[in-house]
Design brief:
Length: 210
C-alpha cells in the first residue's frame, strides 16, 4: 500500500482532486484532462506522480480506507457503548454527504465494479468488508451487553445498515435531499435492532474521516 504519509504535497493535491471527481462522477466519469484543469498541472506531471489511472484510483481508495479506519478507531476510543458507536458511525456518512451531496468514493466505485481495474476493485471490496466486519462486531457486542435486541443475525444487520447508508447517498442526491442520509440512517438502525435505552440514538458525534 502506498501510504499517504509518504506522498508529496503535489501528489496529495492530485489525490484530493481525484477523490472529489470520483465522488461526483465516478471512476469512468473523469479523465486526466479533467484532473489537469482542476489542479492546474499538465498531464505529464500527473503521470509522473500516478503513471496510470489505475494507480491513481487505487491510491484514492487506499487513502480513504486508511482515513476511515482511523475514524473508526477514534470512535472506539471515544465512545464505550455500542449505541454511541453506531450513531458515530452513521454520522461519518452524514458528514461525507454534507451540504455538497458527495457520495462515499468507495460506494460510487462499487456501482462501477465490473468496469474497474483489478487493483481499484480489490480496494473497494476490502473497504466494504472492513466496514461490515466492524459493524458486525459492534452490533454483536451491543447484543451481548443487552443494549440491542436484534431482528436478524449480526452479519445481516450490519449488511442492511451499511447498504442503507451507501444507498441513501445515491437516492438523496437524485432527489436533491440534504437530510436523506440522516433520515435513512436512523430508520435503518430502527429496522435492524431495538435499542434498550430511554435515550435516543440521535445526536451528533465529533469524529471525522478527514
Amino acid at each position: 500500500m502506498k501510504q499517504s504519509a509518504f506522498i508529496s504535497p503535489t501528489a496529495l493535491r492530485v489525490l484530493d482532486a481525484a477523490q472529489i471527481l470520483i465522488q461526483n462522477n465516478g471512476y469512468n466519469g473523469f479523465s486526466y484532462e479533467d484532473l489537469s484543469k482542476m489542479v492546474g498541472l499538465r498531464k505529464p506531471s500527473l503521470h509522473h506522480h500516478f503513471p496510470k489511472k489505475e494507480d491513481l484510483g487505487a491510491t484514492v481508495v487506499e487513502r480513504y480506507t486508511e482515513r476511515f479506519v482511523l475514524a473508526l478507531h477514534e470512535i472506539e476510543n471515544t465512545y464505550v457503548g455500542a449505541k454511541e458507536q453506531i450513531q458515530a458511525y452513521v454520522d461519518l456518512f452524514i458528514d461525507t454527504y454534507g451540504a455538497t451531496q458527495r457520495l462515499c468514493p468507495c460506494g460510487m466505485l462499487g456501482a462501477e465494479a465490473e468496469t474497474l481495474p483489478e487493483r481499484v476493485r480489490a480496494g473497494v471490496t476490502a473497504f466494504f468488508e472492513f466496514n461490515l466486519s466492524w459493524l458486525e462486531a459492534v452490533i454483536t457486542r451491543g447484543e451481548k451487553s443487552g443494549t440491542f435486541t436484534l431482528r436478524d443475525s449480526p452479519d445481516q444487520a450490519a449488511l442492511l445498515l451499511f447498504a442503507a447508508l451507501e444507498g441513501a447517498m445515491v437516492v438523496g442526491r437524485g432527489l436533491n435531499r440534504r437530510t436523506a442520509v440522516a433520515a435513512v440512517g436512523q430508520a435503518a438502525i430502527l429496522s435492524v435492532l431495538t435499542v434498550k435505552s430511554t435515550q435516543s440514538l440521535q445526536g451528533r458525534r465529533n469524529v471525522s474521516i478527514e
